[in-house]
């Protein structure tokens, strides 16, 4: 996932790592959870982060399902959240 993080004035927030991101996975069709595998801050676009997630149970992997992904980012006392949909089909 690509996530953009800005401050209240619209400026890029840099220097975040995995401790700043909480990812919740809700598999609408099958159930399941996820964890953050890694986060890479973009060198070209300040405030953009590539967040790589993986299923908590590696053996099950990503199955055909409709996933709702909740993202919460915290930085000190600042906090923001959003949700997105991921559909995996054959």
Radius of gyration: 14 Å
Q: Kindly report the spatial arrangement of strands forming the biggest sheet.
A: 1-4-3
Q: Give the DSSP E fraction (strand runs of 2 or more residues).
A: over 45%
Main sheet specs: 3 strands, antiparallel
Q: What is the CA-CA span between the terminal residues?
A: 20 Å
- Classify the helix fraction into a percent range: under 10%
Structural class: mainly beta
Rough outline: elongated
The H-and-E topology, N to C, reads as EEEEEE
Arithmetic mean pLDDT? 82
Explain how this protein is built.
- There is one protein chain.
- The protein has 90 residues and is mostly beta strands.
- Helices cover 0% and strands 53% of the residues.
- The protein has no helices and 6 strands.
- Strand 3 and strand 4 form a beta hairpin.
- The strands form 2 sheets. It has a 3-stranded antiparallel beta sheet with strand order 1-4-3, with no helix packed on it. Strands 2-5-6 form a 3-stranded antiparallel beta sheet, with no helix packed on it.
- It has one domain.
Key terms:
elongated; mainly beta; 90 residues; three-stranded antiparallel beta sheet; 0% helix
């Amino acid at each position: 996932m690509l996530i953009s993080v800005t401050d209240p004035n619209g400026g890029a927030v840099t220097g975040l790592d995995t401790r700043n991101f909480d990812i919740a996975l809700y598999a609408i069709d099958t159930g399941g959870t996820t964890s953050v595998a890694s986060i890479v801050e973009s060198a070209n676009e300040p405030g953009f982060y590539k967040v790589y997630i993986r299923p908590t149970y590696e053996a099950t992997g990503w199955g055909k399902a409709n996933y709702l992904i909740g993202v919460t980012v915290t930085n000190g006392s600042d906090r923001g959240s959003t949700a997105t949909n991921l559909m995996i089909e054959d």
